Amino acid sequence: EGVGPQEYTLIKMKLKAPYPPKLASVSSKNVYLVAATLRPETMFGQTNCWVRPDMNYVAIETKSGDVFICTRRAARNMSYQDITPNNGTVNVLVELVGQDIMGVGLEAPMTPYKTIYTLPMLTIKEEKGTGVVTSVPSDAPDDFAALRDLKNKQPLREKYGITDEMVMPFEPVAIINVPGYGDLCAVTACDQYKVNSQNDRDKLAEAKEDTYKKGFYEGVMLVKGYEGKKVQDVKKAIQSEMIERNEALLYKE
Ligand code: A2H
């Protein structure tokens, strides 16, 4: 960790109706899961959204009248960043655990998939970001390993109430070429570091470190509109594009 605050891009992932029962009281509002990411340029490859089944979340009121879902800790941080109606104050509309919002359909920016789903990731940390993580299995080894686990393990899907159609149609999307690692660098890295599941923490840490650096310094965009451009040259532009369209916002902690 560096000395200064970490700046994340919060990706707004819009809940599609029907909302789960726990969110009945906010059914007339726009509700978003907000995911903290360091890689806004990878949002073209989102295949799902991770939440931790046993972790506490809150649905809060925002300045614009929309509802955001995140951890209480993140909500408090947001209240000092001009996101809630009153500075330093959080208005909690609903208290939830991750399982309450498991398997819900979402509309997310940039991705070619019209609807993606919330799925369980057991390694999400309480004390980082919003506790909601967007999944880009093409470029994030953690995401690839966790999605592959769900595809391979029927009992795991069943345990969390996940149906086949929330998981099976979703394949990593080729969005960035990394020299030596090809168009799906997280898939290559998981192979190379012999990652067998999301529980291979040490191997995953190495794979992540490796692909994170290579992706940033050597990655070249494959997606239309940014084709052939280096990741480090377009990261900011892609972030701004989503912020201008009100699909994302900045968040520090
Ligand atoms: B990144 P740092 Cl494509 N628990 O977004 C676990 N992981 C979390 C989290 C939490 N509470 N909050 C955010 N994250 C993930 C995209 C991505 C990310 C790609 C490649 C690498 C990568 C898609 N997932 O991160 O500890 C989020 O995943 C590699 C570092 O603050 C977020 O960015 O450095 C990143 O970890 C933030 O991690």
Automatic annotation (TrEMBL):
Q: What name has this protein been given in UniProt? A: leucine--tRNA ligase
Member of which family? Belongs to the class-I aminoacyl-tRNA synthetase family.
Instruction: Tell me the superkingdom of the source.
Output: Eukaryota
What part of the entire protein does this chain span? 266 to 518 of 1184
